[in-house]
Structure formats: C-alpha cells, structure tokens
Amino acid sequence: MSTVRMGWETWIGLAVEANTGTANNTAAYLWESADGAADSLDLGYQRTEGHPISGYRAVLAQSIRNTHQLPGGALPPAPIWMDGSSLWLLHTLEAHCLVSAEGNPPAGSTWTFTPATAQRATAAFPALTVIKRTGIDGRAEVYAGGVIDELTFSGAHGGYVSITPTFKFLSGTHHATAGTGRLTPTTAPYFTAADTAITWNGETIYPSAWSITSRNNIPDKLATGAFARSAYCLGDYTGEASLTLPRDDGMGTNFLTKYMAPTVGTLIVQGTSTAGTVAGGGVLSWKLTALLVPRPFALPAQAGELTDTIGFDLTGAAGLTVAITSDASAL
Question: Of 141, 220, 300, 314, which has the fewest beta carbons less than 10 angstroms from its beta carbon?
Fold first, then answer.
C-alpha cells in the first residue's frame, strides 16, 4: 500500500521570475495560509469530446482532447506579517499593482503602490511563479507567468488581517522536482484586528468586519498556435469594499448623504507591527487608502442589535494606494 499524505506535507510557495512566463522552480517565499483554508488553483485544462456521426454510439477515445488551458485561481487567505524587508508582501503588491510609485527607496522608507494606468507589453508585467507541493511524489504543480488579477484585503474582530490574491498564469504544469523540501514559516507575529486603525473621512470608526477588493480585469488573450494564454493586457480597473458597522447617529452624515449625492469618501486602514523596526528607528507598517462611493443600502427595523453592512465602489485610477514601510531597498 502506498503512503497516505496529510495536509501538513503540502505547501504553496512564491518565486520571482526574471522573465515573464519563464518559470522559476525555486520557491523563495512561503504563502502562510491559516485556519485550514484551501487554494482554488487549477491547471485549467479545457476538454472537448467529439461525437462523430459514424453509427457508433459511444464517444471514441481519440475524439477526447485537451484543446487548451486557462490556469489560474486564488490562494487561500494569508495573514499579513512583516519582517525587516517584507519582500513577500512587496512582490505580491507588485504583481497586482504592476508598478511602484517609489522606484527603489532607501531602507527604512515607504514603498507606495497604486494600480497601473498605462498599458504595457506582456514582458513588462512583473510576474511570479507559484509552486504547490501536493504531497504526491513527483507531482508538484508549477504555475508560471503569474499576475494577480484580483487582490482582497480583509479583517474582522477577533481574527487576522488577511490578503487573498487571485492569479492568472501563462502556463501551468506538473513538475517532478519543484516543491521538494520545506519552507520555514515566519517567526514574525501576524497582524490582527487589534493591530489596526480605521478612519472614514478622517473620523475613526470601529467596524466589526471590513474588506477591500482591487481588480485589474485582465482579459484572456488566446491565439492560434498557443495552448494557454498568449499575452496579457490591462482591462478596466474596478474594485469594491464593505464595512460592517453598528448602527449609530453618525451613519446619516457619514454614509447616507454620500450615496444619495453620490460623493467620494476616503477609507484608511493601517496597521503597525508589534515587533520589529526599520532603518532610522521607524516601525514596520502598512497602510491602505481607498477612494470609495457608498452603494445604496437598507436600514431594516428589527429587534435586538442593529448592525449594517455597507458596500462601496472603488473609484478613480488611483482608487487604492498601498504603502509599506520596510527595510527593503530593491525588488
């Protein structure tokens, strides 16, 4: 009988590609998903089953073909953590925003990421290879040319602050040697809701849960002679957010009047590490700034506690700005 595998024998790792689409089979960063969540990565084989009119009832084996593949999917939510360089986080943001407004700042400075506003060639997309160790000998999954089409930040009272990327890839395959060995988890603390501060138009608010999602809407470019995606380009930029809040008197001014107008508000979510400093004596930290327009929402009358979830649309070319203070001086 063969060896039965368990979940602790699997892992997902990230590797930075020197050339977009050329797999880097040596994972540098462990994707530290927590709470037993699973990924939805898929090699994306698209199959056709022909039924030739031949007087034969069954599908013939030779008529079953994998015609192409669309590899992609989401990694499980991972708690945000920061060490001196926090390169895993910076590379994740680079693969989504596709640009850093700061270039290469000195160690101890702040990296600022905003969504790309200019179209670019496929080779100019910063890409990651995602390696998934499945636990089956010789059957690691390797996804190359990975760009993050959708990125979600979220948090809730009593839980971690998490980041969830959804990838598109130029290729995906099984690999015999990638995914061997182990990646060591961080010793840095995970950020929790208690480590964050949230403001709406400068006023501190206390949601029990929140989320911000940014989308590149990268279309699938398929071409004759290509088995998988042949190229990348930027689609329309969109996004959304949500806040779950106790109902109070400030909700009228803060949200009702803004969706009726409608007008743009500024949501800021930021966290400061409880451990670790950067060059110059600063602290490891991250900050999300989202420009949002509230969506219409109902205010039901009901017994008990009144809690409302308000949805928002992300607006503008710089609808989301992510600032990271770390010791990294280059990507």
Answer: 300
- 228-264 pLDDT, tens digit each: 888 899 999 999 999 999 888 887 788 877 777 788 9
E-assigned strand segments in the chain: 11-16, 29-30, 45-49, 64-69, 72-74, 78-79, 110-113, 128-133, 140-156, 162-168, 171-175, 196-200, 203-204, 209-215, 238-246, 265-277, 283-294, 307-314, 320-325
Token pair, residue 285, equals 């930290």
Other C-beta atoms closer than 10 Å to the C-beta of 174 total 14
Task: For residue 293, give the amino acid letter.
Answer: V
Locate 155 and state its tokens. Answer: 């948090």
Q: pTM above 0.90?
A: yes
For the stretch 59-78, pLDDT in tens is 777 777 777 789 999 999 99
Output the CA–CA distances (angstroms, integers) from residue 125 to 65, 69, 76, in the order listed: 31, 20, 23
Length of the chain: 331
Helix (H, G, I), strand (E, B) or coil at 222: coil
Give the other-Cβ count within 10 Å of 190's Cβ: 18
The domain limits of the chain are 9-46+64-325
Cα–chain center distance at 75: 8
> By CB neighbour count within 10 A (0-12 exposed, 13-18 middle, 19+ buried), where does 295 fall?
middle
Q: What is the dihedral of CA 224, 171, 101, 313, to 10 degrees?
A: 80
